[in-house]
TrEMBL record:
Ubl conjugation recorded as keyword: no
Keyword annotations from UniProtKB, A to Z: Membrane, Transmembrane, Transmembrane helix
Residues annotated as domain Glycosyl transferase family: 211-350
CDD domains tied to this protein: GT4_WbuB-like
Protein name: Glycosyltransferase WbuB
InterPro entries the UniProt entry points to: Glyco_trans_1 (IPR001296), Glycosyltransferase_grp1 (IPR050194)
Transmembrane region(s): 78-97, 103-121
Domain of life: Bacteria
Length: 383
C-alpha cells in the first residue's frame, strides 16, 4: 500500500462536523493506503489545548502527528490571524524535517493552512488533493465575518492559488464545485459529501403521546453561522420544547437567555460524545438545522447524519441543503432567515406526524441514497 498524508486544521477528539468528516475520510482511506494525519493539538471549540495529548499517536492504524498551535477563540481578527499562522508555521517546520508522502489531501478552510501546504508541496511534484468543505472567503462575506476590501481581495487570490495548485479538488456540495469550475475549469473535481458510516439504530414501533409538546432538538456547534441564540429568541414555544446540545461562541448567551426566561421550555444539555449524542437524539421527535444566513455552498452534514438516525428534520438554512431535505422527503423546510415562516411551519405540525413509520422511512431513504462507501470507492480509484 502507498503512503498518504492528510493535512487538517480539525481532528478528533475535537467535536463537530469538520473533525468527524476528516476522521471518517482517514479511516476509510486507511483500508487501502498507509494514512497519516498532521493536525494541531486539539483545541476546538474552546480555544484551549486539551490535556493529555501527545504529539504522536496511532488510532485504528492511522498515524496522527499533532503540531504546535497558538489556539484562540478571540473575536479580534489579528489574534485569529496569528492563531491560523501559528499552525502554518508548524506545518512548514514539519515539511523541512520530515519525509512527505507523494500523495497529500489538504483540507480547506482555513485558506492560509491550505495555502501554506500547497505552496511548499507543489514544487516537489506531489499529487495534491484539495478537500473544500466551505467556500472561503465567499462564505465569510455572507456571514458578515469578512468585509469587502483589501483583505477580501487577498483572500480571493489565495483561494485561486489553492485551486490552481490542486491536481484533484473534492467539494462537499454541487454549489462548491460549480464555483470552483468557474476558476479552474480543467481541474478534475469530485462531489464528496459528508456521509456518515456508523451503524444505524433500529427504530422500534411506538405510540405517540398526543398530550405532550413536540420535542425538537438542536445538536452541534453553537457558532455565529448557526444562529442558535437568535433562534431561541424567535421561536414560538406554544407547541414545542427545545433541547440544545453543543458548545461554541454563543454558549454563554444561550445559557443567559435560558436563565433570564425560566418559563420558556428550553433545556441546555451541554456537550456529549458523538456516540452518546446519537443515543440521546433518539429521544426526540425532530431536529432543527438552522443557518443564520443562507451560505452559498453550505450543506450541513447534520442532514445526512440525523436522517441515518431516522430523525425528521426541520431545515432553516436555504440553498442546496433545503433542496436535499425537500427532494428526499426528510422533513420540513422554512424560508431561510424568515422566523415567521419557521413558526408557521411548526404551528402546522401535529403529534401524529412523528410516529415511528415516518422515522423508519427517513432512515431507509438515508441508507439507500447517502452511502459513504460508494463515494469512498470512487475517491480511492482517483488517488
Amino acid at each position: 500500500m502507498k503512503d498518504l498524508l492528510i493535512i487538517s486544521n480539525y481532528f478528533p477528539p475535537e467535536m463537530g462536523a469538520a473533525s468527524n468528516r476528516i476522521f471518517q475520510l482517514a479511516e476509510g482511506l486507511s483500508k487501502n493506503q498507509n494514512v497519516s494525519v498532521i493536525c494541531p493539538f486539539p483545541n476546538y471549540p474552546t480555544g484551549k489545548v486539551f490535556k493529555h495529548y501527545n504529539n504522536k499517536e496511532t488510532i485504528d492504524g492511522i498515524t496522527i502527528k499533532r503540531l504546535w498551535v497558538a489556539p484562540s477563540v478571540s473575536k479580534n481578527k489579528f489574534v485569529r490571524l496569528f492563531s491560523m499562522l501559528s499552525f502554518s508555521f508548524s506545518i512548514v517546520w514539519f515539511f523541512l524535517w520530515n519525509k512527505i508522502p507523494k500523495t497529500i489531501i489538504v483540507n480547506s478552510p482555513p485558506l492560509l493552512v491550505a495555502f501554506t501546504s500547497l505552496f511548499f508541496l507543489s514544487a516537489k511534484k506531489h499529487r495534491l488533493i484539495l478537500n473544500v468543505s466551505d467556500l472561503w472567503p465567499k462564505a465569510g462575506l455572507e456571514l458578515g465575518a469578512i468585509k469587502q476590501g483589501f483583505s477580501y481581495k487577498m483572500l480571493q487570490k489565495i483561494e485561486r492559488f489553492n485551486y490552481n495548485k490542486a491536481d484533484l479538488i473534492l467539494g462537499q456540495s454541487e454549489e462548491i464545485l460549480i464555483h470552483i469550475k468557474t476558476i479552474v475549469p480543467k481541474t478534475e473535481t469530485l462531489l464528496y459529501r459528508n456521509f456518515p458510516n456508523f451503524s444505524p439504530p433500529k427504530i422500534e414501533p411506538n405510540d405517540v403521546d398526543h398530550s405532550t409538546k413536540i420535542k425538537i432538538v438542536y445538536a452541534g456547534l453553537l457558532g455565529v453561522a448557526q444562529g442558535v441564540f437568535k433562534l431561541c429568541k424567535n421561536l414560538d414555544y406554544s407547541k414545542i420544547e427545545l433541547h440544545i446540545y453543543g458548545s461554541g461562541a454563543e454558549e454563554i448567551q444561550i445559557k443567559n437567555f435560558i436563565n433570564d426566561n425560566p418559563t420558556l421550555p428550553i433545556t441546555f444539555h451541554g456537550s456529549v460524545s458523538r456516540n452518546e449524542l446519537h443515543r440521546e437524539l433518539l429521544k426526540y421527535d425532530a431536529t432543527i438545522i438552522p443557518l443564520l444566513n443562507r451560505i452559498y455552498g453550505s450543506v450541513p452534514s447534520k442532514i445526512f447524519e440525523y436522517s441515518r438516525l431516522g430523525l425528521p428534520i426541520i431545515y432553516f438554512g436555504g440553498g442546496e441543503g433545503e433542496n436535499i431535505v425537500k427532494d428526499y422527503k426528510l422533513g420540513w423546510v422554512a424560508e431561510s432567515g424568515n422566523y415567521s415562516a419557521l413558526n408557521e411551519v411548526i404551528s402546522q405540525l401535529q403529534r401524529s406526524d412523528f410516529d415511528s413509520g415516518l422515522k423508519i422511512q427517513i432512515q431507509k431513504t438515508a441508507l439507500k441514497n447517502f452511502d459513504a462507501s460508494e463515494q469512498l470507492n470512487v475517491l480511492n480509484s482517483l488517488i
